[in-house]
Amino acid sequence: MNMKSTSQHMNWGALLPAYVILGGAALLALGGAQEISQNNGHPFGVALALLASAALFGVLAVLTWMNWRAARFRASRWGLYDQTGQKGGFLKGLLLGLLGVFVVHVVLFFAAFTPAAPEAVKAIASIALLPFAVLYTVVPLVTGYLTRFVRATRI
């Protein structure tokens, strides 16, 4: 029987554009953090640039993990077992993502409007509350699709 390994099923052609574009942007953000630091910029700017770089590298890691998991599933179909993925899971992931965003929103709301909190904490929390209109849509959809993907590629 001709068994293929997971690495032979990896779809590197799909990952290469992501590595070039997102990896380049992550390295650019890392260089920006170093530039801000060298020019005596605000430490908050350095932290934001490092956070952006880490987020982009995190997206690359998730895409690589997804590609590896799909390749492992394809390789298992070539083996002794004929695997079929499980259906569903989107709604569960969507609700978990919605719950996660809601919990973070409530924590930031209380941090922003608690009278005993320091002014710096209030300022950062009130600024962090701004993108929640987008987060209530994006995060549940992403977690829903990731949950569906995990169930579909389960061996």
Strand count, sense and closure of the main sheet? none
DSSP strand content: under 5%
Counted beta strands: 0
Order of helices and strands: HHHHHH
The number of helical segments is: 6
Characterization of the model:
This protein is flat. Helix 2 runs antiparallel to helix 3 and helix 4 (90-113) packs antiparallel against helix 6 (132-152). The longest helix has 36 residues, at 43-78. It has 155 residues and is mostly helical. It has 6 helices and no strands. Keywords: Membrane, Transmembrane, Transmembrane helix. This is Tripartite tricarboxylate transporter TctB family protein.
Which characteristics define this entry?
flat; 79% helix; mainly alpha; 155 residues; 0% strand
In short, what is this structure?
This protein has 155 residues and is mainly alpha-helical. Helix content is 79%, strand content 0%.
Mind sketching the topology for me?
Layout: H1 6-9, H2 12-38, H3 43-78, H4 90-113, H5 119-128, H6 132-152
Helix pairs in contact: 2-3, 4-5, 4-6
Transmembrane segments: 12-32, 44-68, 89-111, 123-146
Organism: Marilutibacter chinensis
Protein name: Tripartite tricarboxylate transporter TctB family protein
